[in-house]
Amino acid sequence: MSLFSLNIVKIRLFLSNFTSLVDKKSISTYMYNHIYEKTYVIFMETLSFFKAMADDTRLKVLMLLSLKGELCVCDLQNALEISQPKVSRHLAELRRNELLVDERRAKWVYYKLNPAMPAWMNDIISTSSQNSHQYLEDCLSRLNSDCSNC
């Protein structure tokens, strides 16, 4: 008996035990909805990930954090040569998509890639950052200079 057939037998046995409580149709509808909702969540997670990476600033932020590990807002502001509100807006979007986590230390907020991020997302970001030194060259040179604000 195949593994698939064995699982079908287990499901039928499970359903037969609960026929007096709930009809089979509602249980199968519940199972279908649960699978559909989980697939939908994975799809939306994938879509929001690629939408976040479609913006030049957010892509550079993710790649810089992949290379450096952790950076404060002023580091990113200097590296990207954009204003603090603009950096914060992009960081908020990345946090909303659960790609970043933050930690407040005194008056500065430090960001790093979310350790709970799925491995495939982390692989895309790290591979892209390791193979895009020319794309990040200016940002990295500005990042390596001292941040006098911190």
Q: Report strand %.
A: 5-15%
Average pLDDT, to the nearest integer? 78
Number of strands: 3
Could you describe the largest sheet, including whether it forms a barrel?
A: 3 strands, antiparallel
Rg estimate, integer Å:
23 Å
Q: What letter string, H or E per element, gives the SSE order?
A: HHHEHHEEHH
Strand order of the largest sheet: 1-3-2
Sum up the structure in keywords.
150 residues; mainly alpha; globular
Task: Give the gist of this structure.
The protein is built from 7 helices and 3 strands, in the order H-H-H-E-H-H-E-E-H-H.
Give a verbal description of the structure.
This protein has helices spanning 3-17, 24-53, 56-68, 73-80, 84-96, 119-130, 133-144; strands at residues 70-72, 100-105, 108-113. It has 150 residues and is mainly alpha-helical. A three-stranded antiparallel β-sheet has the order 1-3-2. A hairpin with a 2-residue loop joins strand 2 (100-105) and strand 3. Helix 4 crosses helix 7. The model is unreliable at 1-7 and 18-24 (pLDDT under 50).
